């Protein structure tokens, strides 16, 4: 932080007094690079200020990317206009000052805008990474709907890495739209990995196996003693339609219970 403040102060001083800055650089770098001709040029001050403006602008854009681009562009345009007014040396009747005061005013205003661009480049907050954005969104969501989950934010994001939008979709269903199909199963959506669909399908398969076994047992019980036992493949072929029918009946009953609970909730809210 201190180093950044020193850098901003040094660059601001160089912009406000470009001739002295160029003389100092010429004295320091004279053994390596000859800057005498540039220092003696009539446009040396303008050259130094343009270079410093480009440095400040590039630093600000590189740090903030497109976040503050409009603000930075406005500052640079204002700085360029003030510098142009200072270099032209014209007076404006609108301003109640003498010509020297107006020139100093434009120079100070250009320096202030340059300092603002530098401040953005050195002190503006860095853009958040996608993972940081998702983390902030999840923290804000849990602060509103379930503060007890705040300590598990990192673990939940790790489970849903690269599938964060799926996580937020499930959370909205659970906490905002009160999806009863989720609460019926008693599952906590944010603890299920989005890429693993097997656990969700496991209850259905287990139910199908249980129904199939039950139906097969019933079929075996009603067979006449004189009838030879059917082969396993034949038995499965005969009971397959019954299994599908039983599964459909179970799913229809579950859907009916869900709709019944929805109606009860709506009636309760209407009475309240």
Task: Please give a structural write-up.
- By secondary structure, the protein is mainly alpha-helical.
- Among the domains are: 1-123, no CATH class; 130-177, no CATH class.
- The protein is 75% helix and 0% strand.
- The chain has helices at residues 2-16, 18-29, 36-40, 44-64, 69-88, 99-123, 130-145, 153-159, 164-176, 180-184, 198-222, 232-271.
- The radius of gyration is 37 Å and the shape is elongated.
- The two termini are 57 Å apart.
Outline of the structure:
The chain has 272 residues and is mainly α. Helices cover 75% and strands 0% of the residues. α1 (2-16) packs across α2 (18-29), α2 packs across α4 and α4 packs parallel to α6 (99-123).
SS field, number of helical segments: 12
Shape by Cα distribution: elongated
Rg over alpha carbons = 37 Å
Structural class: mainly alpha
Number of strands: 0
Helix and strand element order: HHHHHHHHHHHH
Give the termini distance in whole angstroms.
Answer: 57 Å
Characterize the biggest β-sheet.
Answer: none
* Poorly predicted residue ranges: 182-188, 192-232
Helix content range of the residues, please?
A: over 70%
Rounded mean pLDDT is: 74
The fraction of residues in strands falls at: under 5%
Write a concise keyword list for the protein shown above.
single chain, about 270 residues, mainly alpha, about 0% strand, 12 helices, elongated
């Amino acid at each position: 932080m201190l180093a950044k403040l020193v850098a901003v102060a040094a660059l601001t001083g160089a912009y406000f007094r470009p001739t002295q800055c160029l003389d100092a650089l010429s004295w320091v770098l004279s053994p390596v690079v000859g800057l005498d001709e540039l220092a003696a040029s009539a446009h040396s001050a303008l050259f130094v200020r343009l270079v410093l403006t480009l440095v400040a602008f590039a630093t600000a854009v590189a740090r903030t990317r497109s976040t503050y681009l409009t603000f930075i562009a406005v500052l640079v345009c204002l700085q360029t206009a003030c510098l142009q007014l200072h270099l032209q040396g014209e007076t404006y009747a609108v301003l109640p000052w003498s010509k020297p005061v107006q020139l100093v005013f434009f120079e100070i205003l250009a320096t202030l805008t340059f300092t603002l661009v530098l401040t953005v480049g050195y002190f503006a907050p860095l853009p958040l990474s996608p993972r940081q954005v998702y983390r902030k969104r999840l923290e804000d969501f849990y602060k509103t709907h379930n503060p007890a989950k705040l300590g598990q934010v990192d673990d939940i994001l790790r489970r849903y890495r690269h599938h964060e939008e799926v996580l937020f979709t499930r959370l909205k269903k659970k906490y905002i739209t009160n999806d009863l199909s989720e609460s019926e199963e008693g599952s906590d959506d944010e603890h299920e990995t989005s890429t693993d669909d097997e656990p969700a399908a496991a209850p259905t398969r287990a139910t199908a196996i249980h129904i199939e076994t039950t139906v097969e047992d019933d079929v075996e019980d009603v067979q006449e003693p004189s009838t030879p036992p059917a082969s396993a493949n034949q038995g499965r072929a005969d009971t397959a339609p019954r299994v599908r029918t039983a599964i459909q009946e179970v799913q229809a009953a579950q859907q009916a219970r869900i709709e019944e609970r929805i109606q009860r909730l709506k009636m309760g809210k209407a009475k309240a």
